[in-house]
Amino acid sequence: MDDDLDLQLLNESQEKAVQEALKNPFTVIQGPPGTGKTVVGVHITYHFHMKNKALEAECPNQPPSLVQDASLNENIPPKKRGILYCGPSNKSVDIVAGEL
C-alpha cells in the first residue's frame, strides 16, 4: 500500500464517518448510491494501515508475543497485523483495494 496516496477529499459528513469508525470497534457505513461510501472506506482502511505501520515501527526489535492455543496446548506466534474490509459485494471491496 502506498503511504503517499492521493486520497479524494472528504466532505463534512464523510469526515465524521471516518473519525467515528476510527474510534469504534465496529462501524456500518450506509447511504444511497453516490454518497461516497467507497471513498469513506478507502480513508478508513488507509488510516488503519497507517496505525498498524506506526505500531510496528514503535517496537521493531520486539519479538512477537505468543498466543496460547488451548486446543493444541501449544504457543503459536501471531500473524502480521492486517485489516479486514467487508462490503456488500466483491466489486465494492475490489474498488477499495484498487484505490489502495
Describe the structure.
- The chain has helices at residues 12-23, 37-58, 90-99; strands at residues 67-69, 74-76.
- With 100 residues, it is mostly helical.
- It has one domain (12-57, 74-99).
- A two-stranded antiparallel sheet has the order 1-2.
- A hairpin with a 4-residue loop joins β1 and β2.
- The protein is globular.
- It starts with 11 loop residues before the first helix and ends with a helix.
Write the layout of secondary structure elements.
Blueprint: H1 12-23, H2 37-58, E1 67-69, E2 74-76, H3 90-99
Antiparallel strand pairs: 1-2
Helix pairs in contact: 1-2, 2-3
Descriptive key words:
single chain, mainly alpha, 100 residues, 3 helices, two-stranded antiparallel ribbon
Summarize the structure.
The protein is mainly alpha-helical and 100 residues long.
Q: What helical percentage do the residues reach? A: 40-55%
Main β sheet profile: 2 strands, antiparallel
SS element count, helices: 3
Distance from first to last alpha carbon:
6 Å
Order of helices and strands: HHEEH
Strand content: 5-15%
Q: Mean pLDDT, rounded to whole units?
A: 82
Outline type: globular
Parts with pLDDT < 50 across at least 5 consecutive residues: none
**Count of spatially separate domains:** 1
Number of strands: 2
Q: What's the gyration radius in Å? A: 17 Å
Strand order of the largest sheet: 1-2
Classify the secondary structure makeup into a structural class.
Answer: mainly alpha
